[in-house]
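## retry 2 of 3
previous attempt timed out at serialization; input unchanged, resubmitting
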Amino acid sequence: MIRLLLADDEDLLRTALVALLALEEDLTVVAEAATSTDAVRLARECRPDIAVLDLEMPPGDGLKAAEEIRCELPTQIVMVTRHARPAVLRRALAAGVRGFVPKTTSAARLAEIIRDIAAGRRYVDPDIAASALTEDDCPLTDRELELLRAARTGSSVAEIAAEVHLAPGTVRNYLSSAMSKLGVATRHAAAHHAWEQGWI
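## retry succeeded, writing output
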């Protein structure tokens, strides 16, 4: 029997997936979580064979939860995402994630992927893999990425400046440079673009 932890902040999706996977004779869901924090806590408590984690869970993200679980446990990780960003795929594989699938994957197909991973194999959705091979390099500096990460929360320039210990004018210059490189009109658009690409 393959013991599973399912974590997704969308209750309807998570409960439906739990019900569908429970129909599989060789799979059992031992825990379910709505946040990345709960996913890590329940993984420690239940020690599942495989954790199926949503990439976009609050309060942090599923990838951070995956990294924490993999540091402490032999649990294998399958990441599920609505936004298949190639740079995130590379980070996920580097963190030891064994499976990377879009949310459009059927429960029956996910069950097959879980079995493959339990048997020691990897699975990466072919479309995500193809995107990863053709992705452009990030044109932004580490500092620009840091400030866009902060801007993504909706913080003002003054709040970002206080957070990163820079003068507001310096923050504006970095954000303006990032906007120019990405060809967008606002820092929020730049932050969203960087997030979509998996750079932040």
